[in-house]
């Protein structure tokens, strides 16, 4: 019996692995840095924002909804993050593509930016809402850069 178990284990260990090559993913530490940077900026400027960070599968990784920010602001932040994560581009650019008006769960308003590794691997998107549109995008971009990531594919 011991021989059969040992032989089976040896065969399994010798068989080639069929596992998929691992890809970089957006971790909580990076997402938290992105959120924290935006919250810090908003507090320094006496503003109330919501920030959502989603991975490239559209899963929410980190979210902050500051006191005084409306519920609508939080929902818009999630839509912006989802749009950027799904399409790998800024929400302002998605809006310029003239998408259908019923594009599900993706805002086309300025304030969502994609998240990439330095090598151009897509990780997700960040959406910020509650500021002026240009400030929303700048806050998200600053958060991504604070995490050592980029908003550009690098092409």
Automatic annotation (TrEMBL):
Residues 1-19 form the signal peptide. Keywords: Signal. The keyword Glycoprotein does not apply. It holds the Pfam family HbpS-like. Transmembrane segments: none annotated. This is Heme-binding protein. It comes from Parasphingopyxis marina. The lineage of its organism: Bacteria, Pseudomonadati, Pseudomonadota, Alphaproteobacteria, Sphingomonadales.
């Amino acid at each position: 019996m011991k021989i059969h178990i040992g032989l089976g284990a040896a065969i399994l260990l010798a068989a080639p692995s069929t596992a998929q090559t691992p890809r970089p993913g957006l971790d909580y530490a990076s997402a938290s840095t992105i959120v924290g940077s935006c919250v810090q900026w908003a507090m320094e400027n006496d503003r109330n924002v919501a920030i959502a960070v989603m991975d490239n599968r559209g899963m929410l990784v980190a979210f902050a909804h500051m006191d005084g920010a409306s519920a609508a602001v939080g929902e818009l932040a999630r839509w912006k993050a989802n749009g950027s994560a799904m399409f790998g581009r800024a929400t302002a650019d998605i809006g310029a593509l003239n998408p259908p008006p019923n594009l599900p769960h993706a805002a086309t308003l300025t304030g969502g930016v994609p998240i990439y590794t330095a090598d151009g691997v897509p990780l997700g998107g960040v959406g910020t809402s509650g500021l002026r549109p240009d400030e929303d995008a700048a806050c998200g971009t600053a958060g991504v850069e604070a995490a050592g990531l980029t908003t550009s594919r690098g092409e």
